[in-house]
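input
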Amino acid sequence: MGSWGVRAHESDCGLDLLAVAENRILRGIKFKTFHVRHITELLRAHLIDEFAKESYGWEAQYIDFFYEYTLPHDFAHAVMLVAECFADYRKKGKYVIHDYEAKKNRHISEFVFTNADLEFLLTELQSILNPEHALYDSWKNSESLKKWQAHIKLLCDTLSQAISEGGDGNG
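output
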């Protein structure tokens, strides 16, 4: 897996997770609503399910590595992805996703969230900035570390602002 920028939208992991949300939720509701909690929970469950499918017969050390490094790393991508979708929505009044199956862009004009949903994303994003975090670890030797950190901080600022505005409901 690779990345070509600092956004989750600019990484294989992020785009794979977006495809999961698209195929398992968004397409079924005709890309009408982005429900922050449902999509976040779906992505976490997906990561755990994929591990369960792939890990049968693994030695304990590999299972430990998954829970200590891989799951936090990949779930951090999921949180970043959801936060980026929300930030794009706040900035533009809609979130545009390319529907590869229909070969056209879809415009999601409704986001459903609570302050608790946004606070969860914010807490998770803040933890990513800890040098001990698995995702931070993957960026620590990158020339783009400062740019990546600035991106995470911008997402945190967007979420904090929405929370202070009483973020329950639609964006």
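quick obs: The mean pLDDT is 89.
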